[in-house]
Structures are given as C-alpha cells and as structure tokens.
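Troubleshooting: if your tokenizer reports a length mismatch, compare against these two reference records.
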Amino acid sequence: MLESLKYLYAPAKNKTEKISRQPWLVMLLLKWAYLDPLANSLLPRPGISKDRLLSILQKVLNLSDSGRMPFDYADVRLFMRALAYQQFFYQKDDQFSDLARQELIFAEVPDNHYFKVNFEKGVGLSVEVFIRLSMALIVHIGNYGFCLSRADLFALCPPYTPFEIDAFLRAVSVESSQLQRFLIEVEKEASGSEEFLRQTPFLQRPLIKHGPYYFCVSTHVLQRSLGHYIYDYLKRDDVNGFNNPFGKAFEKYVGRFLEKTGLPLVSERELIKFLPGTGGVVDFLVADGNSNILIDAKGVEMGLRGMVSVTQGDIRKATKTSLIKAFEQAHEVVSRIPETSKHSIVRRGVCNYLLVVTYKELYVGNGVMLEGVVGVDVLDKIRKSYAEEFIVPLENMYFLTIHEFEVLTTVVANGKIGFVEAIERAKKADAQPATQNFNFELHLRSWRDLIGPEVPLLDVLKGMVEGMAALVPRSEAVEGE
C-alpha cells in the first residue's frame, strides 16, 4: 500500500503528469491486493519496489485493453460514458463546492427533518459537524500528505469533542484487518471486465486505518467521497425512504438558483393550474427573451448498470424515469401551451429549449447524445404522439449536473450571458466534430474570456470557515496567528 500511495502523491510538474499515473488503475490494484486471500495471512507479504509496482500497473493496463474496443459498441458514446464514469472525477479539484452544496441541501433543514435525524442516528454525528470535519480533513491531506493520526485532526479542529472526531473517523475509514471483508461486501456485484469500468469502492471509505495512523488512498477519492457522503449514505441506508424527501429538496434547490437570475419564472404548480388538459409537466419554465426554457430537476442517481453498460437497452431502462421522462414531459408542456389562456410569462409560437438538471453526472451531454445512447426508436415513439410544430429539437436539449447548473445560473444572474445565448453557443460548438464537447462544463470553461471564473457557492464556504474559526478559543487563535 505504501509504495502505491507514494507513487500517487509524489510531486508532479503539472496536472497532466499527475493524471498520467492513472490513479483509477492504482485503486483497482489496491482493491485486488486486499481481496487476495494472502492479505490477512499471519506472514506479511514482502514489500514492493517502485519498479515492480510500475511493472504490475502496466500489466493491469494491458488487461483493461483486452475487452471491447470503442467501435465495438452500438454507439461510441456508450464507450465514452463508461470511461468518463470511471476516470473523470480524478481530473477535478473543485470539490469544496460539493461540501457547500451538502450544507445547503442537508444542513439548512429543521432539526427533525428526515435528513438530519437518519444521518445522525446512523453515523453518530450531526450533518453540520460532519461537513466541517470533512473540510478540515481535505485541507490536512492536501497540505501534509496521505497519512494522519487522530491527534492531527484534534489539533486541526479544537472546537470538536473526542466523541465527534472518533465518530467521523469511523464513518470515513476502514481498519486494515477488516478491509477484505469490506471489499467483498461492496464488490459482491462486480464481475469480469466490468471491474475496469466501476468506480473504486474506496469512495465509501477513503481512509485505511493501520495501527494509530489513517492513510488516504487518493485526494480525489477523498474529495469525491466527502463531497457526496451524506447523499450516498442516506440513499444506501434506505433508498425508498430517501428518494421522496430528496427529490423535493433537490427541486427546491434548483428553483433557488433560478430565482437568482431574475428572469420570469413559472413553477410546476402554476403549470398544472393553467395548462389545459392533463399530462406531465416539467418543474419550471423560464422566459428568456422570446423563448421558453423548460427546466426539470431529476435528483435520482443512475444505477451502476446504467453507468457502465455497453448496451442501449440498459441505458433505456436506467433513464426511463429520468432523462426519457423529462423528454416526454417537455413535449407534453410544449403541445399544451398554444391552448392556454393568456399568460404573462409563457411564450407561444417561439423556440423551446429543455435543460434537465441531475444531482450527479449521467454523462449524457445533450439530446443528440441521448438519442445515441438509448436508441432512435425510443425517442421516435414519443415524438410520434405530437405534431411536428411541438417537437423540441434534440440540439435544444442539454443535461446538466447541478454543479454545471449552479455556474450557468450564476453567470446568467450576473448578466454575463443569457440562457438562450448559452445554449445557442453550445449548439454551435457541438454541431461540428472538431469543436463539440462531451459535457456542458467544457462549454462553460471555453467561455472563460466572456464569463470569467465563477465559484457559485464561495459565500457558503466562507461562512462555514468563519463559523469554525469563531468556535476556536481566542488564546488558540492568537497562538496560530
């Protein structure tokens, strides 16, 4: 383990060199090492040199190339999705925004809310304290490397009690002696070449405890794990009980950012009231100039099979209640708009756009890609139910993660770009193979000269840090200055 961590944490000239170490393969190798029956033998296995480690990693890489090649898939984008799911989060370093989002969704609720009650009951720690200790742990690992002790966390977080520190460390770590059992339980559904596409099981427990020390398997795994920990834990604990309250909270959260834009806005409840007839509706409708922007919040997460699948059939099943449902709801709304009585916001006979917002990445960038990964027949079946003038062009549909949506609505609110302008810019780029982007975040990055850098939840993070600092006794704060 130590040689693997030294390899990952060694200084790098730039991000490209860092990612070229292929940390997803190192995580896979670590998993296999601890699943080996010899891992818990009385006689420890001999140490490994860096050269030997690199040789083994090369063999793992060669094994990963033995399965399907990109053009063996029904659509090459199926291959790209699976690859993105496995690897993309290792290329991101802005995961503090995920902690801030958890603060807004899971902490800013009443004390008797489902989120708080069930998390504290299971973890033994409040949502608020967990998020703040997560911040401290990420900062410590980023500054001091992959190893820390219990005392290190105490020194970094003097406001918190030994009970809270211990509960936190238990939640995010696994004893090395119990690691094999943990991995067997988490990986019980893994099979064959699918292992090369799965995300690492260390996302559940990013720290390995050995003796008095805790070893962080990867900074990116740590950030990703803690950034979604509360969501993942509550969903894993009781998926049926969690989905309904989270769906409502997520829709409210999306509406909160839409309101900041100052654009005319119609909610789902209002749409149900004034649209004639019956049928599904989207969560929001925003008027931007002479266009309708239909927005649907889909807080559900796609299952593992849908994320790593190589078949369109599996993707169809996985998106039936999310992306495909949003596609159908958008057409139902557009087809009913012409028959409405006069409404000051909804536009008639104009261009319609659809934005679907998901909590986590589904890696389906736009409507064209949706058709590619679920199949033309599925969407054609829906389109045939509507007159041609009510069809929303695939090019007018984008599927955004909540992070992408936060950035987009922030720059719209700041007057740097409009919804329609943003979608049309993305459409223009995506119309040509040489300029098309895999997801909307890449479009946002390409517009930096226009919109500048945006950190939508920076004020939330500052408030959390200031709140933690205020809890530190004055004498300790003075000593640290």
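Reference record two:
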Amino acid sequence: MRRVLGNYRFSIILLFGVVVGAVLGLTLGERAIVLKPVADVFLNLVFCLIVPVVITSISSSIAAMGNLGKLRKILLLFLAVIVVTGLMTALLALLTALIFKPAQGAVLDLEQDTSGITGNLDLVGLFTTDDFVNLLSIDNMMPMIVFSVLLGISAALVGQAAEPLSKLLASATEVLSKMVAIVMYIAPIGIAAYFASLVGTMGGQVISSIARLSVMYVLFCVVFFVLFGVAFSYAGGGREGVRRYFKNVWLPAATGMGTCSSTASIPANRIACEQMGIPRVISDLVVPLGASMHKNGVVSVQMFKIIFLLGVFDRPIDVPTVLTAVFVAVISGIIVGTIPSGGFIGELFIVTAFGFPTEVVPIIVIMGTLTDPFCTMNNVAGDSAAAMFIARVVEGKDWIKRTVGTGDRPTDDGPAAAVGEELAEVTEDGRHVAAARLNGLADARTEAAR
C-alpha cells in the first residue's frame, strides 16, 4: 500500500483536489465564485508557460533529430491517428447515443437572447497569423505550432551553423521544464478552487434534460477512457505498456479534469510521457500537437449534442445525416479551442451544419460546460496513449524493453545503447587487465629489490 501511495501520491492529491472542489461548489453554490481568483493565479502561471514550452520543446526536438525522414514518419503517423481515432470515437458515440436516446423526454427553453451570437470557420486564421506577436498567445496555438515546426526543420537543415540555436532551445526546454515542476506544486489548490467555482456557478442550471445527457456522456467517457487507454498502450508496448500507461496517466488526466483545458495539461502530459519511457523526440511533438488537434473527448461530446438536438427537433437520422454528423464531430475535435469552454466554435459549427435555430447555442454551451471535465480528461489521456503507439511504430517493437529505471524513464535511444554497453564492458575489461599488469610489475620490482 505504501508503494502504491508513493507511486500515485501526486495524482491522488490532484484527484482529491477535484473532489474537494466539487463538494465546495455544491455546498457554497454561487458563493464559491470567491475562490476563482485562487484558481486564476494557478491557471495564469500555467498559461504563461505554455507558449515558451511549446515553442522550445517542439523546435528543439526537431532540430536535434537530424533525421527528417523520422520526423516525417512521426507526423504522418500522428495525422493518421487523428483521423482513425476520430472516426472510431464518433461512431462509438453515435452508437451509444442512438441506443440510449439522450433527447428522450427533453424540453428546451429557447426564450433566450442570442442576437449577438456570430461566428465563422476561418481555416486560414486557424493555422496562420499575420503578425509574429500574435504567436505569443495561447489563442493562436496552431499558428504557434506551425511556426515551431518550421523553426525546428530549418535548424535541422542548416546543420552545424544552427548548433548554437539548437543548444539554446534545448537548454531553454530544460529550464522551462523545471519551472513547470515548481508551478505544479500549487496545482492541487488551484484545481480545487477552479472546480469549486465551476460547480458553484453551473450547478443551478442543470435541468433534467441536460442532466440526462451529461450523466450519459460521463459514463461513456469513463468506459472510453479505459478501452482507449488499454487498446493503444497495449498496441504500443504490450502488457508493460498498459502497466506504465495506467501508472502514470493519472497526473495529466486529473490536471485535465481540474483545469478543463488541454493546453494547461501539456506540462503534466509531458511529465507523464517521460515517466512512461516514451522518447522525448516523440512526446515533445505529439503532446503539444495533440492538445490542439487530437481531442477525442470533443469528438464524442459533439456527437452526443448532435443526436440530442436531432431528437429534440424530431429530425430523421438517415445516412446523409449520420455522415454529416461524423464529419462535424471529427472536424470539431481539430478546430475547437483548448481552454475552458473553448468549444464555442464547435457549437456554432453544429448549428450551421444542421440548420438548428441559434437559440439552442446557449443550451448546448451549458451541456459542454457540464461535461467539460470528463471531455478534457479523454482529450489529454488520448495524447499519451497515441504517443506510446507511435513510439512502437517509430522505435521498433522492443522500444519499451530498452527503457528502465525509476519512473520508467528512457535510458537509451535504441541501437546506440547496445554499442555503449559493449564499449563499457570492453573498458571495464581493459581496466582489470591493466590493474593485473601493474600488480605484476610491482611484485617484480619488489623481488628485484630483495
């Protein structure tokens, strides 16, 4: 029991913070809003670190890689994982929603002022920005990632002339990682305060129809979390992969639940991936990219919302409707924001694609807010599971056997480690031979002196 508590101590503390926050929110009600400044201090510290952490970790990882063919392989695999898992998630959520009918008995109050609601899907603005200064904001995560990837590739192509920059980026990554570790010490308090203010503010808005969908979705998330984690960690590392995954995933999962932000969970997820033994060249790419583009929680909750609204408005669920729903859900998992309640663009996407009245937007926003903790949990946990699977494909089937030690940290980069071990053995043998010869020479001198 002591060993278990030691291994999971910080994750348990974070989950305890979530529970304490929920209890405080239910007890204090709207008065829990007084705790929000405490939460804001923690979140502000994390968000201030996100920009430099993402830029330095991605660019330094690519610059140090040298082998751009390997980079291409990682990115193509990651894109394939996004599409395949997005489709799988959408279909599982669709099947679940069709079986359990989240709209059963639902009555919506549409008497709300939504005249000021506008929105559009600017794909150019999603991936690029017109000013470098705009890159230094978490509101522009995708342009920031595109810039970081290009910076790393350029440094790798330049070669020796870029070594000072590569060393600077690597050094900055280490320093920022230490800063993240320091900030995480206050995570349990910040998460408890945030969750208390969230539950206290939203608790009174839970009507029966929304509550039914929310409970249904939470149960789906729990099952999906287990199945997805087992499937991808086993595919990535067999039984040992499953063990490492479920030993270390609780830190980012609890951070995701407590902050409701995939972006804020990037530091915790990088720590977890390192403890799982996933090579940093992979995790430093997959985790930041995954936070922005690989969000299975969003895909599933969007599908639940679509089926809910189709049921409320008595729309037929035929093949074209299903195909449209799958497309909207998968694309939403890529384009929606990664901060608390950042899925507003996803709600507008649903309304636009299916022609629902805009009056439903505030209602499905509430649904998204209530389900956000579990939605974010699956977003975040899916990234580390995907990173483990990509490690298996890129590094070979025995990659996990080459990572040992406390925290399951990686101790080598593959074949080079075997060479290092042989050299160590040769060196050690040479020391023994030299020592024996010196001892023999000393004995001979002693005998000659006699």
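Descriptive notes for reference record two:
- The longest helix spans residues 208-248.
- The chain has a mean pLDDT of 79.
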